[in-house]
Amino acid sequence: AEIAIHTEKAKKISNMLTGVFFEDINYAADGGLYGELIQNRDFEYSLHDKKGSDEKWNASMAWNGDFKIVKENPIHVNNPNYAIISKGSISNFGFDGIALKANDKYNFSVFAKGTKAVVRLKLASGETLAEAKFTPSTSWKKFDLILKVSKTVNDAHLEISTDGETAVDMVSLFPQKIFKNRKNGLRLDLAETIADMHPKFVRFPGGCVAHGDGLHNIYRWKNTIGPLESRIPMRNIWNYHQSMGLGYFEYFQFCEDLGAEAVPVLAAGVPCQNSSDGGSGQQFGIPIEEMDDYVQDVLDLIEYANGSVNTVWGKERAEAGHPKPFNLKYIGIGNEDLISDVFEERYKMIVKAVQQKYPEIIVIGTVGPFFEGTDYNEGWRIADELKLPIVDEHYYQSPGWFINNQNFYDSYDRAKSKVYLGEYASWGNKFYNALAEALYLTGVERNGDVVTMASYAPLLAREKHTQWNPDLIYFTGDEVKPTVNYFVQQLYGQNPGNHYVESTLRLSDNNDEVRKRVAVSVVSDEASGDLIIKLVNALPVAVTPAISLDHLAPTKNVTYTVLSGNPELTTARPVTQQLSVATALSKELPPYAFVVMRIKTK
Ligand code: AHR
């Protein structure tokens, strides 16, 4: 293959092209990124979650002992249930057993009243790995204790025992090793795996989670802030319980810790497919007379993120521990909605209110999923009317679709809204899928003047608790298993540019099926001065590129990374070496390979 790079012909592209889309699906929040190790710590699982309030709690009572869930005088009205243990113990196995590390410390906390009690971390064999005592009195009090663990295990449980009668609520256990040492923080290994992708933005909390599966299931950000015991938990659209322990404050903090832009997505005043709570088929939106309040909620979120400490919501943020504004720039309204009249009326009300009160905020609209029979064109019509700066597009397709549609954005009208490709994935976690995605992303980079952001979806999935496959990063209680697709995302994330450099690719074989399986994308990064060449070879044969880039000294340093392997397997991993420009530019591309060359020019 002959590749000519024309460094003199460059266009500006988005400098935040790749990021992540975090949705609470597949136990991504509770039991996932959220550091809490106890499941149903607040006894608020409900029949609505298809669970009882004692779910995940086992009782082992002494003779005559008792364990019950009651509601009288709770620690907070939003958290009505708590447990009373009488002469016995209750235990919690977390999410499939609690994973603990030898010599690590864990922060245990509990609200309690009654008689003295003991907390232990134990194994099924009866072995105790750590223990501590607490002595409550007649009124609710919070206890904070440190448990140091003697053994590495992944199947422990937490047990609270009393000889008398003790009431407990908000029974919590966090590892002290937590991402950026934040209070109420995020699981270290998972957060670091996300951070290693160098995401430029984080979209949250969904997807479908944002608009829910009925009016009462719309995600309300105000229910997710403030003291943990005052947050309002809810079943999510994926049919499990969200404690809201990972709420809007924690999302904003995570974005800041990652150095990524926050992209919160709020429902457009309608639930998923304008559905009703009972699934009657009738179209539903928030009643028009309640829309002013809903619009105000959206505006209040911007104040919560950016307002001074003298504003109502800025003060709430300060009280949560962040007096400085989070500097929110983006807000998403709507997610893959059915574009009905009910939707359009509410969507326009919200968007116009934000545009009017906060013209500096970039509103990202929705045009729904892209496939036949959807409202994609209708979504674009409204985007034109509202002059939206960006719209959110989604598609999940076969690897073949991604290979055949590399030019998807070439003909997009540059005068219209820009695109945030908020969700995409090819159907699978084999290396062939990852390669198809890498190929497609060369086209996205080429169109980085119209595509401002792109995020693979979904991001996280706890093994044995997945509602959606494929995902980018699988995990268990003690292991993180990034997929091969993850490494493609990581290589793009770690090697962005802010200019797209024109290049031409000539292959000796002119067959279209061959040509579309080899792709190149060249970007330059102003800050480092680096030139980055990405090459994809999805052919079963090696390709020898002859790359002409004559203005660089042949001895300049190149960080050369290859991700290659059997397309049917999931085992390919990036391998990096340092080469001279002369060697790197003529190096053979193995069959089925994604190569990133990062060339130092300064
Ligand atoms: O990513 C999973 C789901 O796919 C999202 O919740 C939704 O937006 C899309 O349909």
TrEMBL record:
Keywords in alphabetical order: Hydrolase, Membrane, Signal, Transmembrane, Transmembrane helix
Top-rank lineage group of the source organism: Bacteria
GO biological process: L-arabinose metabolic process
Domain Alpha-L-arabinofuranosidase C-terminal, residue spans: 422-593
Uppermost EC category: hydrolase
The protein's Enzyme Commission number: 3.2.1.55
GO molecular function: alpha-L-arabinofuranosidase activity
Catalytic function, reaction form: Hydrolysis of terminal non-reducing alpha-L-arabinofuranoside residues in alpha-L-arabinosides
Record's keyword annotation contains Acetylation: no
Family: Belongs to the glycosyl hydrolase 51 family.
The protein, known as: non-reducing end alpha-L-arabinofuranosidase
Native organism taxonomy: Bacteria, Pseudomonadati, Bacteroidota, Flavobacteriia, Flavobacteriales
Residues of the full protein shown: 247 to 848 of 848
